[in-house]
Amino acid sequence: MSDQASDETDQRPIEDGLLAGRSLIDGRLVFPMPEGEEAAAYQPVILARRGRLWSWTSQRHRPKGLGIEVEPAHTILIGYVELDGQMMVEGHLLIDDASSLHRGMELELTIETEGEAGSGAIYSYAFRPIAK
Question: Alpha helices of the chain — where are they, by DSSP H?
Answer without folding.
Answer: 8-16
